[in-house]
Amino acid sequence: MVRLVHSLKGIAGNLGFNRLLLCAQHTEQLLKVGDKNANAAIKELIIQLKQVHIYIKILDVSNDK
Questions:
Q1: In tens digits, what is the pLDDT along the chain, a chain of 65 residues?
Q2: Could you give the CA distance from residue 34 to residue 55 in angstroms, rounded to a whole number?
Q3: pTM of the model
Q4: Which SS3 state, helix, strand or coil, does residue 36 take?
Q5: Element at 35 (helix H, strand E)
Q6: Domain residue limits, the chain
Q7: Are 19 and 54 in contact (CB under 8 A)?
Q8: How far is residue 37's CA from residue 35's CA, in Å, rounded to a whole number?
């Protein structure tokens, strides 16, 4: 899970999705130390991913016009 979140952090940074990047950084840190709040951070990370997905879909629709 740490490797997946780490990769996601890099992708988010490269694409300029700053909220996703910060969320991934936070989640990665919690996972690395085994913090009990890691599950909540993962849920927030999923929410951020969904928001990015919606944003990309909106861009795609606007490019079709």
A1: 999 999 999 999 999 999 999 999 999 999 999 999 999 999 999 999 999 999 999 988 777 76
A2: 32
A3: 0.88
A4: coil
A5: none
A6: 2-64
A7: no
A8: 5
